[in-house]
Write a structure and sequence with these properties.
The chain is mainly alpha-helical. The protein folds into 3 domains: 125 residues, no CATH class; 452 residues, no CATH class; 102 residues, no CATH class. 61% of the residues lie in helices and 5% in strands. The chain is built from 29 helices and 7 strands. A 5-stranded mixed β-sheet has the order 2-1-3-7-6. Strands 4-5 form a two-stranded antiparallel sheet. A hairpin with a 4-residue loop joins strand 6 and strand 7. Helix 7 runs antiparallel to helix 11, helix 12 runs parallel beside helix 14 and helix 13 packs parallel to helix 24. The longest helix is centred in the C-terminal third of the chain and has 30 residues. The chain is globular. The N and C termini lie far apart (74 Å). It comes from Methanoculleus bourgensis (strain ATCC 43281 / DSM 3045 / OCM 15 / MS2). Keywords: Membrane, Transmembrane, Transmembrane helix. This is DUF2206 domain-containing protein.
């Protein structure tokens, strides 16, 4: 006997829904109250609070919209996305309304906790009132499919937790090695159709994604990386006074995904913001591959969808750079949800429009960079769709794949053609998003988001013809033309370039065989634009450097990853037609086997496991424990806290890596360490971290156009005429 699926609560009958909902709410409130009076049950409040604010508001919105029978994956994804929107809007509204009512600390537990409870009760009333006649669908499917592989898949994130703990405490990476090998084996198991059934693919996708995220996010007891330190500074600037100052002129200050969402999670769960970034945000971000899996599965099949998401999460940016970009993590959740809504032609027009605008607005207030890319990609994509619609009927039906009878496809098992499709990418949607973007970016943070995009546009325009293809101005071209440090790294570059070749072939194959590949026109149109964005990252000066080439490629993979699999299938079939013996080669029995082997190699290169085993210039943040990386220990944090607690406003000099640590404390008074020590201002501080102290070396960075070059020099050059005023054996501070 199966219990009702908790991931589909909106499909339950109203009576059962009401009582289960209230029981969970009472448990949550009771646990918070026990914690407040001193009876703390480990992780109980944190888990209940996370589930309560991450899923229940969204479930109520779905029920109020009378959206039922979406399936477990869509219900979970939509409820999480809508809950995040409710939380961000709650923070925004209370930040302006409460001060008008005389309460000056809207971002405090005393204000937010009862506010959220009240909002949930209002949503509950709306849900039960609007959905009064719903009797339940009687869904009895288990939440987790019964399969021998399920316990193994569930254990992957826990292995990542254990592995990072052992790494942090004992500097051993054995468990992390084991984790990455197991993930590689899962990729092969799916390709060879062994051990893991298709019903477990969604669980496998989420577990692999979360394990990869945790295997990097949990290294060190402090946040690590780049932009996330500035995000932490802004979060603390909200939690300190209990108020968000929207006039602070930083782009990131206008992103509710940071200044509203993190404080709310921190206050309600009782977690320090550092652990919100390290634990909760990966839990949320791992939903992105799950959403992409579902979007691709609905257009192709389960194995293509799995291999697409495996490719997406295997790319190193997913679990390295994105760990230090909390705002983009949240924005990508909404982009994945937008894709799901866009390709869902069964949803009625009004509900689909509501979800598209809601998630589009959420992208705008979550990350300006992704919002700009998405918005600017919609315009040519819409024009392309309109152009196709005005072609002669014969050509149009060929391109849209809506006429004719396709041959049987053993890869997809799809032999029917859907009826004429309804286009979801329309001009009013683009105009609404454009208006929302203009209003938001011109209102918050002194309009700095507009100034940023204008500055980038000016740079590109000024250098477009003079510096096109220049390795110093076009970051993508620099990566392609620069010499790799070792032959093994050169091989990795070839593998990366091969993935882009597969994507290009896959897009061409999709266009030429529309009767075979069920890719929705909107998805295909945006994908074509994203391929051009990839090309622009290579040839257009200052385009990729505004985000970093790797981040730009990661963003485009949200749409383009499936075409690498389609391209691989097309190439395999073409090769087998000419070389029949190819099927008997190892890992070449089917296209799926060949592709799974290729992307496992791609994973091993990207995680740095191959370099670590070969001791060949290791690159992994998690596996390599001795190099100079933006990963900071407790002594370095204590040194920075001591320096900034002095309350002085003197310049603070710091090298290129430690720059990011101090960015989380005071972004206005630090200076990059100059090549020439004599250029340091008098009456200034010099901050050294553990690497500087132990290696007696500092990292000097020099930026030439869009490319940053770095080198190391002796630390003694900068300390000769300075006085040491602080030393804790892990960090040191000098005064001049």
């Amino acid at each position: 006997m199966h219990l009702l699926n908790p991931f589909q609560m909106n499909d339950w009958d109203n009576r059962r829904f009401f009582w289960v909902f209230q029981a969970f709410q009472v448990a949550f409130i009771g646990m918070v109250c026990l914690d407040l009076v001193g009876y703390h049950i480990p992780i109980a409040r944190e888990v209940l609070a996370f589930l309560y604010i991450t899923f229940l508001p969204g479930i109520l919105v779905l029920k109020a919209l009378r959206l039922h029978d979406l399936g477990a994956i869509e219900t979970m994804l939509y409820s999480a996305g809508l809950s995040l929107v409710v939380l961000m809007l709650t923070g925004l509204v209370t930040n302006f309304v409460y001060p008008l009512l005389g309460y000056t600390r809207p971002f405090s537990f005393e204000a937010l906790f009862p506010t959220l409870i009240a909002i949930v009760q209002i949503l509950l009333y709306l849900a039960l009132t609007r959905d009064r006649g719903y009797a339940g669908s009687g869904t009895v499917a288990p939440a987790i499919p019964p399969a021998p592989a399920v316990p193994f898949l569930i254990l992957l994130p826990f292995l990542a937790i254990i592995g990072t703990y052992v790494r942090n405490e004992y500097h051993m990476v054995t468990y992390l090695f084991l984790l990455l090998i197991l993930i590689a084996l899962i990729g092969l198991a799916v390709g060879f159709d062994r051990f893991i059934p298709a019903s477990s693919y969604p669980l496998a996708v989420y577990s692999i994604a979360l394990a990869l995220l945790y295997h990097t996010s949990l290294i060190s007891g402090y946040i690590w990386g780049y932009d996330i330190h500035h995000e932490l500074h802004l979060v603390n600037s909200v939690l300190g006074p209990g108020l968000w100052d929207m006039t602070i002129p930083y782009n990131t200050n206008g992103m509710l995904s940071v200044v509203a969402l993190v404080p709310i999670y921190s206050l309600i769960t009782g977690l320090d913001p550092v652990w919100v970034f390290k634990i909760i945000y990966p839990l949320l971000f791992a939903l992105v591959p799950l959403g992409l899996y579902r979007a691709v599965e609905k257009q192709t099949n389960a194995r293509i969808a799995f291999l697409s998401t495996f490719f997406f999460v295997a790319f190193f940016t997913f679990y390295t750079e994105m760990i230090s970009l909390a705002r983009q993590q949240i924005a990508e959740i909404f982009l994945a949800l937008t894709i799901l809504v866009m390709i869902d032609k069964s949803m009625d027009r009004d509900r689909r429009a509501f979800l598209l605008v809601t998630f589009g607005f959420a992208i705008i207030v979550s990350h300006y960079g992704l919002a700009y890319i998405y918005l600017f990609s919609l315009i040519p994509a819409w024009l392309l769709l309109v152009f196709v619609e005005h072609l002669p009927a014969g050509i149009r039906t060929k391109l849209q794949g809506t006429a004719g009878t396709p041959k049987h496809d053993p890869l997809t098992g799809w032999g029917t053609v859907p009826e004429a499709r309804v286009r979801t990418l329309i001009l009013p949607y683009i105009l609404v998003l454009a208006v929302l973007a203009v209003l938001w970016y011109s209102t918050v943070a002194e309009g700095t988001a507009f100034a940023t995009i204008t500055g980038i546009g000016d740079k590109i325009t000024g250098a477009l013809f003079a510096d096109a293809f220049s390795p110093t101005a076009a970051q993508g071209m620099h990566i392609l033309t620069s010499r790799s440090v070792t032959p093994l790294h050169s091989l990795a570059k070839i593998v990366h370039i091969a993935t882009q070749g597969l994507i290009t072939v896959g897009l061409l194959a999709t266009l030429l065989k529309r009767e075979r590949w069920r890719i929705e026109p909107e998805y295909l149109a945006v994908s074509l634009v994203f391929l051009l964005i990839n090309l622009a990252g290579i040839v257009v000066p200052f385009f990729a450097s505004s985000l970093n080439t790797s981040r730009l490629y990661h963003i485009t993979l949200i749409f383009l990853a499936p075409f690498a699999i389609i391209g691989g299938i097309a190439l395999y079939e073409a090769a087998v037609e000419r070389i029949h013996a190819l099927r008997s080669a190892p890992c070449m029995g089917t296209a799926y086997q060949a592709l799974s082997a290729f992307f496992v190699v791609f994973l091993l290169f990207n995680t740095g496991l191959i370099y670590q085993i070969a001791d060949d210039s290791p690159t992994s943040m998690a596996l390599e424990t001795t190099g100079d990386k933006p990963v900071f220990n407790g002594k370095e944090v204590k040194g920075a806290e001591w320096l900034l607690s002095e309350g002085n406003r003197r310049p603070i000099y710091v090298d290129g890596t430690r720059w990011w640590l101090l960015l989380g404390f005071d972004p206005d008074h630090q200076r990059y360490l100059p090549e020439n020590a004599s250029l340091m201002e008098p009456n200034s501080y010099l901050y050294f971290g553990t690497y500087n102290v132990v290696r007696e070396s500092v990292r000097i960075e020099v930026k030439e156009h869009a490319v940053t070059e770095a080198g190391y020099t002796s630390a003694g050059r900068f300390t000769g005429d300075q006085h040491k005023v602080y030393d804790n054996a892990g960090s040191a501070i000098y005064y001049r």
